[in-house]
């Protein structure tokens, strides 16, 4: 009797299994964020008439389309902002066969760029990786030079770029709490301060391309308690502050070249002065800081990764996630773990012409991509948290181990 009742229940469960699995799959797909705009015959012309549109014509069953899908969504996440230069879109050709046929789609995926005001679209024929695709977009749309884009992005991210930041009692603590700061403590009536003022403004302008330091000032006649906390006893007093802590008092000449050289020395950046150029000739124990190594070209990349440990960030200057990671990456380079162990902390700009093949060879499919190399052998992509403690812990694992 029991077996007769049990058998239908088993059969029912077996029958329901595919439906449960399909429901779970559909739920997972629904949860996945879609950034690319899905077009159909009713919306296609509206988007094409409104601006530049880069369209992926695809079929859901196509293996190449499936591999391209995460990269296309990442591109859409980057590009599909308010008032975009180009909209990243897609058309499912299994649903809209006529639309795809109208645009000469004979294979999947087909990528076509529709430029505003032009009748003919441009077919993308390059490799399907992010550097090649973004380069294609920039060339076809005649976007501004990379340097101009960088300056625009930095200006948007930091409205004080290239300017002296005027601090007060409310803003001082928060401003200096993280990062590098060169601060002028002054009094308006002080003649030495008055003579320094235009040079201080020039210094900020000269360093606008260096986002890892701010040039600031605070009036000690208005905010005495802050100046007392930093033991300011004369004007002007110029202090180098890192992460809220006073590192040292500047005691050099107050002309622009000397001040700029000092900032570059504190950041570990290269300088035109012989003194800084010869720094690499000094005994290793005298060099207190190291900075992120900018790799350019195959030779530099090979040299950096062949021997020892190198942790490399592959990035694009316009990438928001890369910009967010930059100060942490700089901190990692100056960390005691990296400097004492001789670990190279480096970065590769995948949009630079001389680096494109490197990024393709290393299978960089998104930005930023972090790879660690030990004696020329590339490890699995780092996919952990991008916080400084987590990055430090990851690097520590490769110190003093010959076998991986």
TrEMBL record:
InterPro entries: PDI (IPR051063), PDI_thioredoxin-like_dom (IPR005788), Thioredoxin-like_sf (IPR036249), Thioredoxin_CS (IPR017937), Thioredoxin_domain (IPR013766). GO terms for molecular function: protein disulfide isomerase activity. Keywords: Redox-active center, Repeat, Signal. GO terms for biological process: protein folding. It comes from the Eukaryota. GO terms for cellular component: endoplasmic reticulum. Residues 17-142, 152-268, 276-400 form the Thioredoxin domain. Residues 1-23 form the signal peptide. Belongs to the protein disulfide isomerase family. PANTHER family: PROTEIN DISULFIDE-ISOMERASE C17H9.14C-RELATED, THIOREDOXIN DOMAIN-CONTAINING PROTEIN 5. This is Prtp.
């Amino acid at each position: 009797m029991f077996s007769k009742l049990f058998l239908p229940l088993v059969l029912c469960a077996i029958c329901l299994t595919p439906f449960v699995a399909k429901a779970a799959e559909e739920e997972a797909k629904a949860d996945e964020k879609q950034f690319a705009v899905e077009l159909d015959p009713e919306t296609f012309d509206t988007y094409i008439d409104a601006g530049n549109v880069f369209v992926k014509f695809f079929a859901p069953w196509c293996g190449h389309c499936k591999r391209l899908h995460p990269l296309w969504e990442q591109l859409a996440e980057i590009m599909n902002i308010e008032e975009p230069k180009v909209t990243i879109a897609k058309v499912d050709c299994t649903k809209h066969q006529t639309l795809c046929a109208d645009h000469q789609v004979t294979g999947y995926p087909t990528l076509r760029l529709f430029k505003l005001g032009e009748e003919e679209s441009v077919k993308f024929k390059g490799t399907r990786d992010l550097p090649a695709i973004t380069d294609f977009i920039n060339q076809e749309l005649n976007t501004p030079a990379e340097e101009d884009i960088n300056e625009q992005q930095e200006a948007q991210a930091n409205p004080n770029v290239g300017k002296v930041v005027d601090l007060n009692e409310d803003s001082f603590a928060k401003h200096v709490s993280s990062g590098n700061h060169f601060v002028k403590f002054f009094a308006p009536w002080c003649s030495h301060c008055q003579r320094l003022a235009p040079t201080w403004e020039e210094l900020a302008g000269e360093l606008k391309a260096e986002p890892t330091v701010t040039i600031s000032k605070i009036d000690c006649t208005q905010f005495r308690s802050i100046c007392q906390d930093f033991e300011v006893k004369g004007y002007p007093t110029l202090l180098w502050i890192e992460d809220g802590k006073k590192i040292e008092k500047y005691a050099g000449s107050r002309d622009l070249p000397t001040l700029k050289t000092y900032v570059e020395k504190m950041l570990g950046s290269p300088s035109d002065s012989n003194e800084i150029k010869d720094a690499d000739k000094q005994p290793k124990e005298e060099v207190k800081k190291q900075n992120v190594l900018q790799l350019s070209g195959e030779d530099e990349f090979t040299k950096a990764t062949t021997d020892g440990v190198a942790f490399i960030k592959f990035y694009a200057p316009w990438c928001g996630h890369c910009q967010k990671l930059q100060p942490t990456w700089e901190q990692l380079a100056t960390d005691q773990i990296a400097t004492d162990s001789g670990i190279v902390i480096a970065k590769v700009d995948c949009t630079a012409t001389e680096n494109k093949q490197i990024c393709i060879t290393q299978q960089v499919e998104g930005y930023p991509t972090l790879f660690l190399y030990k004696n020329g052998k590339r490890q699995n992509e780092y996919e952990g948290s991008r916080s400084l403690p987590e990055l430090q812990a990851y690097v520590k694992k490769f110190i003093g181990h010959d076998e991986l």
